[in-house]
Design a protein that fits this description.
mainly alpha, 180 residues, 8 helices, disordered C terminus
Amino acid sequence: MTPRSRQDRAAAEIEARLQGLFTSEQARAALSALQATFAAQVARTRQPATPGLAQGTEVLLDTGVYLTRSQARVDLDGRVLLDTVNTLCWDRYHEAGEALPPDLLEAADEATSPGGDLPELWSEVQGDAAVARALAERLGWWTVANLTTNALHLEEGQAEEDLRRLWVVLAQGTPPPLPN
């Protein structure tokens, strides 16, 4: 038996793990599905009635550009593209948090955790348009980053439902119609 180098073993283990998780084609299909879902949400929103919806729409438009640009990279493995888009979304999520006061950032983290009260937090910031926009951006990137993280494991309609729940909060109770 020929001993393999540490690098060869690592490369083989990484490739085996990647192949066991999903294929490049599955990752590209997940990116396309998210792109279509985000575009449909933007189309349904038309002219956002609240600053929260306007900011949420901006997040979806930015993410759509990430997805469009990544899909054009035919020279890269779809898994790398999905990971890149996911990393960008999480980076933007953290950047959006920098615009929030520390106490509100902590409250936002609590509100988005299981059992948190996101509608209550959202209603508390409505008096300050700048804070509401910053919070809406943070919530938008949080939702999009979670969807890209789980893109290969989403059940049918789950992305639409997650976006719908966010839009209910941002629209203060007026959900957009779900796709037919």
